[in-house]
Every structure is written in C-alpha cells, then in structure tokens.
Amino acid sequence: MDHKSHYVILMEERVGLHSHDEVYPVKYADDRGSSHQQQVTCYSYKDVNNWWIIKKPEREELVVTEPHEPIKHGDIIQIVHGLTSRALNSHDVAAAMSPHSQEVSCYVDYNVSMPAQNLWRVELLNKETTDEYWHAVESQVRLIHLNTSSALKFSGRQLPDWGFRQHEIVADKSLDNEDVIWNVEEHRYSRVEDQKEREKELIKQEMIPTERRNLTFFEKLYELQYKMLFNNQENVAGHMYASEPIDWLTLKRGVAYWISNNSNAQVHFIGNIVTWFSGTFSLFGYLGLFVFYLLRRQRACYDIPEKQWQTFCRIGEDMVDIDKINNKRKYENTFLYFKVDNLQNPFVNICSKFVFVVGFFVHYVPYFLVDRTLFLHHYIPAYIFQICVLASLIDHIYYLFSEWLNSRVLSTIFIVGILTWLAFVVYVFLKFAPVTYGDVDLTPDQVTDLSWRENWDLIIHKH
Predict the structure, then answer these.
(1) Eight-state DSSP code of residue 404
(2) What is the per-residue pLDDT across 124-140, written as a single tens digit (0 to 9) for each?
(3) Residues 6+ apart with CB under 8 A from 156
C-alpha cells in the first residue's frame, strides 16, 4: 500500500470507517459540549463515504506520484476523507456515547483556538507473518493518535438520530483489545486533484473482491444462512424502528426507509393491516381446528369425511409431492430423491402434510434465539406461509358451509363476507399507497391520519 491512494478501512467486525458532511451537535443530551467537528462513525454497509486517502503530512497534494511510496510500520500519516477532503482528527474532548474516551472527527477549521491534531502512527500487529509494509487485506494495523497516544477504536455503541444510528468511533488509551485492530479491504490509486472530479470517480467505484472465488452450491447455501444468522451480531443496541418477533404477529411497528428532504413524502414499510391480522388469526384458527378435530377423532367422532380430513391436514402437500418424486427415475441418485414407503418416516410425514404451518414456524421461531437488532422485514418469509394458511382455511370453511352443512344461505353469507374482506384489503392498499411508493407530498395531517397504531412512527418534518 502506498501514500495518496484511496482505501476502504475496516474493523475485524466488518464495519467500515465512515464520515459525512454532518457535524457533531454543539451539546450532547447530557449537556456536555462537543468539538462540533465533522462526524466520524462506523458504518456496516459499503458506501462511497467509506473511502479515505492516506498521505504524508508534509505533502499537500492528494494524488499519487511516481515513484510509489509504500507505508511501513512506524510511519506518521494523515488520513483524509475521500469526499470531504478533511483529515481524521482527535482532541481531548469526551466522545458522545463513551465519555471516558476521546471524540474522533474530521477537522473543520473554524478559525478558533483549536488547532488540528490529525497525525497518526501506523503500528502493524502481524508484521512477523507479512513484512514491515502495510498490505491490503493481510495486514492488521493499529492507528495511534500522535498527540494523545490513543488508538482509533470501534466502541460498539450506537449514535442517536443526529448520528444516523451509525456506530461510534473513539480514540482510547487502552491499546490491548480487538476493537483497535483495523485492516484495509481495498485500495485504489488517486490521480484526480480536483475534489468534484475525485468525488465523481469515487462514486463510480465498486467494491470488488480482492480475489476470485468459485463457490459450490452448498458453500453458497452455508454462507447465505451464516450471514443471515450471525452478520452484525454486534448490533444489539436499540433502534427506534427495531421490533421483537412477538410484535410481528400484530404489526406493532413498521420501518422508515426514506423521507424527502423537502416534504413529508416518504417510504415506510408497513403491512396491510387487514391481511396481516387475518393471517395471524388464520394461523391460530387452523391450529385450533386441527386440535379440535384431533381430539374428536380420538373419541371416534369423525366430524368430517376422511378424504376432507386428509385434505385439511395436507395443506401445501403438492409443494412436496414425495410420491411423484419416488415414481420418477430421473430424480434417482440426486439429493431430491427420497424413498419413503407410505410416508412412514415421522419427520417427513409431518413436514409433507403441514408444509405451510411448518414453513411458517421454521422461518419465524429461530428469530427468538438471535441476539441482534430485528426489524419487521425479517418476518416476510414467515408471513408468506401465513397467507397460504389463510387461503387454505378459507377453502376449508367454505367446504364446511357448502358441502358438510349443505347450507346455501351460509355459503352465500360467507362469499359476501369474503368479498367485503377483499374490498377492505384494496381500501387499505390504496390508503397506504403514498407511503408504500413515496410519490405523494403528504401534509402533516395526512401523515397523522395514517398512524393507525400508536407505535407506527411515520415521520413529519418540523419546519
């Protein structure tokens, strides 16, 4: 790695060193003063604001020159934010969420008696296994603030709304912990001096892997499941739109995705409350009916014919038609081939009969075991199965009215009820379309009118 290159600097936890135009508030919530300098945070996603330029302090230009000068252990450097061209800085000012540590910022010259302290010393922690030079990906580095001998550290704490709920970066005297270890994921040479042109160049850059990988199907499957379960496990702090799995059943809270800077036009992820509650009730209704039928059958009371009982139990069976698989030779010797005589395997028997119900619980229950911040969108896979249960229950109730009870009146009333229910579904869809698509400038009263539940925190600009 050389001076005056663009770098993406990451923690071991895969959060990127990040900055943006916003500054720290003049005072924090506990009335402590801040430096009012440009915010520096950690961001969990790949973003153009994660690019930094490393240069020698005595050089003013930000473009690479020949010959290249590699960075080595012990070098004194400046780390300049790629888009704002402000240098990474720290002062003897308490950090926002970790007052025992120093605040880290990008220096803004307010022409006051607070000079820049933007020099950092490079300490390579694994130079025995690499060499004295800082390498992308391979090298583990600790960045020491020259003025205070504090290390650049990921505190793990989440900033409030003014910090966009990103994670806090501090400078800390404690050097012997994993939260001060950084590495560079990617670097590029900077050859553009003009800031606006450099900004265009950075925005066009894509984060690319440092080496090609060809994953097998099972490696891809493993990586997907692992990332879903354990990615961002450090992000356990509260979030204003976070929710618990038990809240998802009743649509307690949505998620704000976007709001216009100039109006109340916004995209807010919230489900259709009619289908949502209907799906939840149908799940409990189906399980209740199943238990009722089962208890009655244990007492030799067969309320519905055997064929209909099998249909009721085997909702979604066509999705896992094991008999068809067994009867087709082309599936033999593949991982899709099962040889199950008369479905005697208890596990396969249950899964093949109750595909929708089992699918719901498989996609829902594991979230009770995950220690991370959860949002409503995590419920969507389970919700799809819930809607399938709803459709199956409607079909079964219609059978009870039309064939089992053979009542034309009840069948007609039920059909009218379903049509009325569908009308409400369409009404709610149209009602919430403005916050589904974000294409309408809403008035404050209109936003308030859409807050049907107390915890639906739709956003209203305060002008």
Answers:
(1) I
(2) 988 888 788 888 878 88
(3) 167, 168, 179, 234
- The sign of the CA dihedral 168, 78, 70, 123 is negative
- 67: preceding bond cis by omega (within 30 degrees): yes
SS3 state at 271: coil
List, by residue range, all CATH 2.80.10.50 domains of the chain. Answer: 5-204
Burial of 298 (0-12, 13-18, 19+ CB in 10 A): exposed
What amino acid occupies position 119?
A: L
Contact 207, 187 (CB under 8 A): no
Residue with tokens 């919530």: 29
Pairing of strands 51-55, 141-145: unpaired
| Cβ neighbours of residue 406 closer than 8 Å, sequence gap 6 or more | none
Q: How far is CA 355 from the centre of its chain?
A: 28
More confident residue, 230 or 441: 441
| pLDDT per residue as tens digits for the range 359-416 | 899 999 999 988 778 899 999 999 999 999 999 999 999 999 988 888 899 999 999 9
Provide the total of helices (H) and of strands (E) in the chain, helices listed first.
Answer: 11, 14
Say whether 375 sits in a helix, a strand or coil.
coil
Q: What is the DSSP string of 221-269?
A: HHHHHHHHHHTTTT--S--TT---HHHHTTT---EEEEE-SSSS-EEEE
Prediction pTM value: 0.51
Whether the Cβ atoms of residue 45 and residue 63 lie closer than 8 Å to each other: no
In angstroms, the CA 112 to CA 38 distance is 15
For the chain, how many residues are written?
463
Helical pair 355-364 and 380-399, crossing angle rounded to 10 deg: 150
Tokens (6 digits) for 144 = 């020491």
The token pair that represents 435 in the structure block:
């916050």
What type of residue sits at position 231? N
Q: Domain 5-204, what fold?
A: Trefoil (Acidic Fibroblast Growth Factor, subunit A) (2.80.10)
CA nearest 430: which of 403, 400, 450? 450
